[in-house]
Amino acid sequence: MLQRIIYIILVLTFLPNSVLRADKSVSPPNIILVMADDLGWSDIGCYGGEIDTPHIDSLARDGMRFTQFYNNAICGPTRASLLTGLYCQQTGHRGDHWNEPKDFSRCVTFGEVLQQAGYRTMMVGKWQGRDSALDRGFDHFFGPMCQGKISYFHEVKQNPYYYDRERINLPENFYLTDALNDHAVRFLKGALSEQQPFLLYVAHIAPHWPLHAREAEIDRYRELYQKQGWNQFRSQRFQTQRQMGLIPKTWQLAPRSPLIQDWEKDPFQAWQAERMAVYAAQVKSIDRGLGQLLQTLKAAGAEKNTLVLFLSDNGAAPDGGLTPSQSGFGFSAQSRNQMWRKDGVLIKPGSGPNHLPGPADTFAAYGLAWATTSNTPFRGTKLEGYEGGIRTPLIVRWPEVIQQGGTITRQPGHVIDFMPTFLEIAGADYPQEFKGRHPLPVEGKSLVPVFRGEQREAHEVLGWDLPRHQAIRAGNWKAILPRKQPDKWQLYNLKKDGTETTDLAATHPDRVKTMSQQFQVWYKHVHSKSNPPGR
User: Which H/E stretch holds residue 409?
Assistant: First the structure.
């Protein structure tokens, strides 16, 4: 009998707190979810990049990095899946457009479910709905109602700013990412002063174009990118990723587009370097804000019981051109653009050596060459079904559960997995009925087993219906269909060739046939207009 009692005590001692959630005296974990916009897989330091991101990197040092985590290749569809645990098509998104209305009759957000479970829920940043985030499960909100092109320095057409339900005017010296950081810290401090668990969702717009950053922040990166260009940085990132153990040494670097010439041959190196310097400055501002959040947690003694996650909504964006231009993004010398900014100031169209990006009266992006570098080592960019479009860095710190810092997991996951993950750690049930709505069953699977170092049950398939491709992954195999070649599936073994350099379709026709059929089943399922029987 004594031995049995000792055994039970030992088991209970080493069980994670989340398993013991039936004890109401144990406080559910807090959650901080930070998402960048258009950040490439390798831009941050802990994924091989040269941009200075010490606070993001600290999450990797103390927690876990995922090497095979997926998004939906576009901002709006990714956010729809992230918030609901469903494929975006099930929530009203087509999946090939950036910002379509969601059908809330068929889904709930994790904010709504956690709010009902007693969580204080807060959000700052990119909200793409036509209603308020406060109507969709968040107690507090700050940010723009994003329905059009953004500016980092001023309010512009279609993007009014709100603090909760109050329409606000922007102060002097406004900079969007800093404002989001400041309000995130304000919300966090308020939550830490209350006796309830909280969820804070920080949906950054950086480093999405336009290339807007403060001069002092840009200046710190100018020399770095003037010394060498995309050839060298892409090679360095690739080697660093191998050394870190993020990718197998047998993988090859994905070939770049033939449209991209060698850096040494580019006649506009100073301009190209400035574009990347502004982009790096935008990434740095995200890292600075995360540092403020982590310091606030530490000062409150709340680090141990807080799950912190960082990811990107899609791969790096190729917009901006490879050469200077006098137009772009709807702005040209002939267009009347004084109605875009609320203050009526004109945007100087295009970008080039005599019109560098960064200031508030510019609107530019960094182009395909730098986007390819950002997505090292993968093929493809935003909007595409190749890994460069759909694979995101994901870093997770949760000291109560992830006790071995610097862990790397190769288990695949998807943004649909956040909903069930949050429900499990909060001890909350997914509703069959919610305020007259009947949500579809969650498609995601909890990541908590992965956090514990266990092997979780994998998704049978993961599917994508994107602007430029349709794709499906089953096990280590991935089939992808270019929309311009609707009868020519490609096939890749992601374990051996994660950078998709060798198309195996011709040598495995039966597998291609099977996976194309799997895609059709997935497509029909996510586009179904009715809830399953009994729902």
Answer: strand 407-409
